[in-house]
Design goal:
Distance between the termini: 91 Å
Strand order of the largest sheet: 3-2-1-4-5
Mean pLDDT: 85
Structural class: mainly beta
Number of helices: 1
Number of strands: 10
Strand content: 35-45%
Shape: elongated
Largest sheet: 5 strands, antiparallel
């Protein structure tokens, strides 16, 4: 009986820790209590994210003893002034961002590059050539 009790399987646990990213690739290195390498990165569906080296990241630990680990997020940037619950603000490098507002407004900041067809109200966009070098 004593032997059977002492041989119990380790119970899977889940834990989280804050770390600093060290090696940034599709699998990354993070320092928490020590450095761990080749951690997969998880994020919301349809979203690809690579934290910068030195970024504060959230590391989830699971499995028996917490040996199964992954990076699943980073420290959130400052909330923009006036942002409402339910809105989404995506920060990018060099001041570029996307702001999805509750009223349906999509605000883009930075250099805008469109690849593919641009439709306005369902119609293909055609630049005006009526002013050719003059004031429109």
């Amino acid at each position: 009986m004593w032997l059977a009790q002492s041989m119990k399987q380790a119970v899977p646990t889940a834990d989280a820790d804050q770390g600093i990213s060290t090696i940034v690739e599709d699998q990354m290195g993070v320092v928490t209590r020590g450095e761990v390498r080749q951690l997969p990165i998880y994020g919301p569906g349809g979203y690809v994210w690579l934290p910068e080296s030195g970024a504060s990241v959230l590391v989830i630990k699971g499995g028996p003893g917490g040996e199964e680990q992954c990076v699943c997020g980073g420290k959130q940037a400052e909330v923009p002034k006036g942002m409402q619950p339910g809105e989404v603000y995506i920060y990018g490098p060099k001041g570029s961002n996307v702001y999805l507002q509750k009223d349906g407004t999509i605000e883009l900041t930075g250099r805008i590059s469109i690849r593919g067809q641009l439709l306005i109200n369902g119609q293909p966009y055609k630049p005006c050539t009526c002013g050719e070098g003059g004031i429109l």
